[in-house]
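Limitations
The structure tokens in this dataset are predictions for the assembled complex, not deposited experimental models. Users should treat interface geometry with appropriate caution, especially where small molecules or nucleic acid strands are included. An illustrative entry is reproduced here so readers can see what is and is not provided.
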Amino acid sequence: MKHVAVFAAGLLFALGLGISGMTLPQKVIGFLDFAGDAWDPSLALVMVSSAGVYLLLHRRVLRRPTPLFDTQFHVPDRTDIDAPLVFGSALFGIGWGMVGFCPGPALTALVSGQTQVWSFFVAMIAGMYAEGTLNVSNRIVTGRGEAVDG
Amino acid sequence: MEGFTPVLSTIGGALIGLAAIGLLFANGRIAGISGITAGILRPRKNDTQWRVLFVAGLLLGALLIRWVHPEAMAIRIDVSNAAVLLGGFLVGIGTRIGNGCTSGHGVCGVGRLAPRSLVASAVFFSLAVLTSWLIRHVAGGL
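Predicted assembly:
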């Protein structure tokens, strides 16, 4: 049952991305580009609607002693605003603003079979590997490449 | 799908939110696509199977969308191939350094009113708007 539930969540997530229009970089850029000819506010509605549903329902879920198929919730509890958070999010924003793809839509759009989508995906995976190897976030915090949390 | 799509975008957004709530309810995880994907690249014991299942569901959902709503796959990218590669790399490394993307920080984190996610979302939205403006209105393309 657990497997079915997790699989179904992924499936529903992709349906939401596709129906909302977020698999289309031109539509994302249509929102990000406030100075464009025809500004498209659609992405704002996607964010308000998705985060709104989460806002309304997550407390009810987290009040339960455990999730349905696990012994504990895996929800981050950090509240510190550190340099890696800001620096990493800035790099992500630059890449997102360049092309119009963030990770979820890029993954979903792979089935379009378009070469540029696959190029973006391969480069994104390379970027993820790069951080796994370079450990930039810990270098920023400690000035060295060592893992802070072990 | 070109132009303002208020109804579809609101419904689609609600489905994204429900999917993320469903994952939290089922196995207590945050539906952050960059984190889920990166976890598959660096597998840890007993932490890989759910990620693969989620991504498999995502890809099947994508195939369904391509079938019933093909407009959602009519993708147009207005920058060069070099810019696509650089953008993809920045999205990959940036989401790992910053611990999340539009889904983990933007939907789940903002939805929980988590301070780190509110800051991250403000930063990546601002930089995305600024970058898009610089490329399309100042540089005249990339």
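Some entries come with short summary sentences. For this one: The CA atoms of residues 2 and 69 of chain A lie 6 Å apart.
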